[in-house]
Amino acid sequence: MTHKPKLKLATTSLAGCFGCHMSFLDMDERIVELLEHIEFDRSPFTDIKQLDHCDIGLIEGGVCNAENVHVLRTYRANCRILVAVGACAINGGVPALRNHFSLKECLEEAYVKTPDMINPHIPDDPELPLLLDKVYPVHEVVKIDYFLPGCPPSADTFYRFLSELIEGKEPQIGKVELRYD
Ligand code: SF4
User: Fold this and answer.
1) Largest CB tally within 10 Å, which of 10, 51, 122, 171?
2) Residues lining ligand 1, Cβ inside 6 A
3) What are the residue ranges spanned by the domains of the chain?
4) ipTM
5) Is the omega angle on the peptide bond into residue 152 within 30 degrees of 0, that is, cis?
6) How far is residue 177's CA from residue 172's CA, in Å, rounded to a whole number?
């Protein structure tokens, strides 16, 4: 009997809180089962820094700075299937709350107007990634193939989604995943 080659899976977090990654880990022992069929590439789980060509890329978080744009485009260029994971990737989520204000207002509030700041000034080290005017959902920057809703998507959602891809099926997002309460 011939074994199918393992699917290569990469993940990353842009402007997110890593809660989606933590929820992935909540699959617990089912991850061991999945590892029969998938292998990790670049991901915070592996600490691999170089992205190889992959079958699946899971993107957590919205796009808030130039580095996020670069990383997202790199994943799009190297991943056959790119997935927006969680509310921040799908619609900007919590980081996009800053979109109600100008970038200047946000920076001044955080670094200048905050009481008891020592040497209040807006950080301007050239090594810092350039902030975008707004936080953008990932599909406004690159083409996305699937959206996994939730904040975060549940471990069951990750498991079902990956199992269906492993089986070569078209993943279905059910009513359970689309609940927002
Ligand atoms: Fe965190 Fe929720 Fe955003 Fe995921 S969707 S990165 S859990 S805030």
Assistant:
1) 10
2) 16-17, 19-20, 60-61, 86-88, 93-94, 151-152
3) 7-96+134-167
4) 0.99
5) yes
6) 10
Say if strands 131-136 and 63-65 run parallel, antiparallel, or are unpaired. antiparallel
Q: Which residues contact 156 (CB under 8 A, 6 or more apart)?
A: none
pLDDT, one tens digit per residue, over 46-83 is 989 999 999 999 999 999 999 999 999 999 999 999 99
Q: Within the chain, how many helices (H) and strands (E) appear? A: 6, 7
Question: What predicted TM-score, i.e. pTM, was given to this entire model?
Answer: 0.93
DSSP string, 106-152: HHHHHHTSSTT-SS------TTSPPEEEEEE-GGGTS--SEEE-SSS
Residue 114 pLDDT class (50, 70, 90 cuts): confident
126-138 pLDDT per residue, tens = 999 999 999 999 9
- Give me the architecture of the 7-96+134-167 domain, per CATH: 3-Layer(aba) Sandwich (3.40)
Q: According to the model, what pLDDT value does residue 2 have?
A: 58
Beta strands, E only, 22-170: 38-40, 54-60, 63-65, 79-85, 131-136, 146-148
Q: Could you read off the pLDDT of 152-166 as tens digits, one per residue?
A: 999 999 999 999 999
Q: Which atom of ligand 1 is nearest to the CA of 19?
A: 7
Say how many Å lie between the CA of residue 139 and the centre of ligand 1: 16
